[in-house]
Amino acid sequence: MARGLPAFWSSIIGVPFIGVGLFLYLAETNHPAELGIPFILFGIFIVGVGLYVHYIAAPKPPKLRENEELIDDRHPTQRVALAKILVSIPLLALALYLLFHTKEPYVYPTIAFITGLYFLSEGLQTYWTNSLTKYYITNQRIVKEYRLLSLIRREIPFGKVRAVEIRKSPTEAIVGLGNVRVASGEGGTLEIVMQNIENTTDFADKIRNLI
């Protein structure tokens, strides 16, 4: 089962879309009933993906080799996802207010809705991806596990690590997170980027001490 409560939180976000869609479709309003269908479908999609992430698509720890010990394991922290979702809420609320309670041209609620939907979609995608991702640090290697429809595993033995870098996007810097990039010397093509990590500097130093 995936980390956290993806089914619960996805339902918290998706059910209001279904409710608004049903209201638009069933109630007698000045807006076309068909306007409610995209809301309903989008809400069902959010709930459905949340259920899938929660019950099916959990990453599995790697099998340890001889003389290999697990030193640390982490999921990406969800602060970036939360920040994006929180930004979307007032924009979506503004769109509904302009649509139902004012006579402003449709272009204004449309712009607010599309902008809010962008941040919401980005936040959900980040939340689901983080829920399905886990990083493992052993005394021999770094492993990244990601499972959606199938397992994707990437690993770098410490003997091949040539660079450990810290990177922060503006959003990550605001919420106190960062990314740790570990690259091998094989033409720069093999790398693992551990995203949305707390205490980024300490985590990077721990990896450097194992090289």
**Gap between N and C termini:** 32 Å
Number of helices: 6
Structural class: alpha+beta
Shape: elongated
Strand content: 15-25%
Q: What Rg do the Cα atoms give?
A: 21 Å
Tell me about this structure.
With 211 residues, this protein is an alpha+beta fold. The protein has a domain of 58 residues. The protein contains 6 helices and 7 strands; from the N terminus they run H-H-E-H-H-E-E-E-E-H-E-E-H. The protein has a 4-stranded antiparallel β-sheet with strand order 1-2-3-4. A 3-stranded antiparallel β-sheet has the order 5-6-7, covered by helices on one side. A hairpin with a 3-residue loop joins strand 3 and strand 4. The chain is elongated and about 70 Å long. The chain starts with 5 loop residues before the first helix and ends with a helix.
Key features of this structure:
three-stranded antiparallel beta sheet, four-stranded antiparallel beta sheet, 7 strands, 22% strand, elongated, alpha+beta, 6 helices, 211 residues
Write the layout of secondary structure elements.
Layout: H1 6-26, H2 36-55, E1 70-74, H3 79-101, H4 107-131, E2 133-138, E3 141-147, E4 151-157, E5 161-167, H5 170-175, E6 178-184, E7 191-197, H6 200-210
Antiparallel strand pairs: 1-2, 2-3, 3-4, 5-6, 6-7
